[in-house]
């Protein structure tokens, strides 16, 4: 029945009775269609003969480019006609080929390929069109199947998917010359007959599968689809050759493991990878379950990918791998049982994996790769490019990770390889690697003068009566913003009643006035840190040293220096070192208050890197002048009944010793003699020496000064007049301390840490006159004897350590513990 | 990005994660992404009796939005550096807001 | 800063050096030399992990085609094979069953293919194929009807309990976690 009422039957069909369905059996020979199609293709006599109407124009056509005409139009061998109208199949074939070409091309031209869409070719028809039983087309050999006669039924099945199978697919009429058209039922039956082994594929199979998977038989485990490893080597290669954004390459073993277990990153020796338990070099330790696979290719390797835990999973603890029955014989009963249990388990697991693997590869490596790229792009958009080209934005967004991995990452290849800029900064901060022979030499004169002035200025500042009693903090500390673009939702939402004005406001006013209340201290500290960080950033952006005849570069350099200077001034102001000293004030000096915070102590090494000698000596002077109000001295005074200061104080002392002392020492070790003299004078004049000496930090500073003086004298650098001055001061110090010498030891004899005391005594001993040395011995004789006696009760190494400490002192005055018998 | 940056440094450390539904899971942090989704390996569910559905799980992808706490090894955190990173982040955000 | 690969090739190292030279850091503050680190060239730190490791894709990559337990925000537990996903952790699970727990009972309901919107994912765990059949002794399998009834009861109990708790907490000023939505 046609729209216009014509007889639409083709001439060749007219004399045949389409009739009702004849059932499956008439079609028992699945190949009959083809045979007939071949035989009867030309039998249609009623049709107008082509040759009768042909005008011959076609002969004039240039047929150069028509190499595939036969494929397309079925010229030549009519045998192939059965599939010539399988447009979808053709398209898929072509698109697969395109996809393949693209991958290949991108491997050869990475840059170009980067811009290209993922290898899935355009023009792929809607996925549903991939008929239910249409087997996944093999990428590599997409053409082969089409020459396989057994392939026809798939096409028929496809039409059944559309539920329109009353009409045969186009090619069929030609075949069906002496047969009736098959009904839907017939088609389905035929299909069932032809592809029964595979069983009804799960619905998933209606989706295209880019991986080759033999459609008719269960693949043996060895031949499981190679889509299982998420990324095939081509893709890894792609990754490497720069198909991905440049910052993604080269993918280290870690990535390749992530991206495709089992695909060796090129360059890693194959034998390494073949041993799946051996992580590639430099790999972070991987968990036992880590699925680092052997290289793809050998069936053995394939299987291991499929069954990762096998033979190396945790369930296989120490079990020998049995490769032949002989081995099994030699095992003990227990071992054999364990092995058999293990084996059964393995078999079970393998079976499960096999069942799961049927749908593998739905997501193609290209898909995964594509998504990874999307995400990386997002990251780049959010964090700036992760390559070096945009160092600044990386630092702003990924600062912690970048610096942390420098400091703490895997061990460096070369132990002496210096760390990056930030690593230095933060290692200095913790004091871990501080102070190892990195003192630059400098021309002395200039500095000596400046320092002298500086000391005098500082001393004067210390002694001068303050003119303005207290300063109110201005908004000079810069804005500290707590705002956040993605302001987190407050988890606490407490509404304060409006009437809660009690004692609080009064206290507030008071604290606002103080330069040293906690809030101001912390605000000051933040200002210090922000100045520090800007200075550290400046350091990195320093322009290269200008050439003489390049005015632009010189200009640039000048500007840079100017900026650094401005920042230095900002840092200096926020440190509050130059705030006037208020004698007898109850609140500590703002700078000393800064130092009482852990954060403040930690800042000192960083600050010292960015300030000049003048500023350093000023800081040292401030600390010395305020020694007894320093928290680590003030709070460390041992109170009767307590063996040692509280834990918090001990931690503070420890931190001070680690963070602040090395910086001070670094300066003192180079300081000229007159500054040392001045500092000792300040200790004597400004502080309560006897109580300062009872603390570790106080003694440490005294030791520092005394020893430096001795070194200067030893080196013959001390002028006679200076030395006289020094001896005067020293004598005052000695006389002041003599009565309390025995009290400067911490706690009882067995409390351990008294090394710093012996160091101090040694420093005193060296500088002391023979008469003073005698008094010294008398003063600490008891402690010496006690320690020697006590050390005999200790294990050898502790004992020698304690004796060593004592001997430090003994030798300074020309004695030795050995002499004590 | 501060937290993302921070958690990245905890790769291969053992952490304990408490979810907003009170499940606590200990495992080796394998990866974290920009949404703070977390991938844990060799997981161990605390109070496993209460969560039988997790009994045979060996590794886990946890969506960032359901994490309540992450307990982490103190020794693996560089506090000073983190403080500075926080300062930078604050300065950043202030700069962006402006 | 520099991103380094784990297998730092010598060539890469050289590149590194060159880049570093762009950022010399002579801290030249005039006469302020001592205490200044002697070595000035900035060099590469230790290797860093590759950026693509820190993507959702990387996290889901090795869960692909594996058998997983998926816990949804509404408390549903699904067991299936992960076949596909995207950067939002939207997921496709195949051959999925839903396992319902109530009391010390559980029941399985075959569900088929699941497409899950990422925001509903709570966690996703890979099932250890060796251990999956060892159901914990604390639970036993029961019929769906039985478990379902029990679960309905439990749910309504919990709902009212949670509601009460939230009322108390918000009176104390606590905003409810996860916007008041109850996670299971």
Distance from N terminus to C terminus of chain C (CA atoms, Å) equals: 42 Å
What is the CATH C level class of the domain at 56-144 in chain C, in words?
Mainly Beta
> Averaged pLDDT of chain A, please?
64
Helix run count of chain C: 3
What is the gyration radius of chain A calculated from CA atoms?
Answer: 44 Å
Separation, N- and C-terminal Cα atoms of chain A = 130 Å
Shape assignment of chain C: globular
User: Number of DSSP strands of chain C?
Assistant: 6
Kindly report the oligomeric state of this protein. Answer: heterotrimer
Largest sheet of chain A: none
Average pLDDT value of chain C? 75
Task: State the order of secondary-structure elements of chain C, H for helix, E for strand.
Answer: HHEEEEEEH
pLDDT < 50 runs, ≥5 residues of chain A? 17-35, 41-45, 112-179, 196-318, 410-419, 428-488, 500-513
Measured on Cα atoms, how large is the radius of gyration of chain C?
Answer: 27 Å
Please outline what is shown here.
The complex is a heterotrimer of chains A (821), B (98) and C (184). With 98 residues, chain B is an alpha+beta fold.
Description:
The complex is a heterotrimer of chains A (821), B (98) and C (184). Chain A is 52% helix and 0% strand. Chain A has 821 residues and is mainly alpha-helical. In chain A, helix 18 packs across helix 24 (598-610). Chain A is elongated and about 135 Å long. Mean pLDDT of chain A is 64; it is low at 17-35, 41-45, 112-179, 196-318, 410-419, 428-488 and 500-513. Helix content of chain B is 27%, strand content 36%. Chain B is built from 2 helices and 5 strands, in the order αβββββα. Chain C has a domain at 56-144: SH3 type barrels, CATH 2.30.30. Chain C is 25% helix and 26% strand. A 6-stranded mixed sheet of chain C has the order 5-1-2-3-4-6. Chains A and C meet through helix 11, helix 15, helix 16, helix 17 and helix 18 of A and helix 1, helix 2, strand 2 and strand 3 of C. Strand 4 (57-62) of chain B pairs antiparallel with strand 5 (121-127) of chain C.
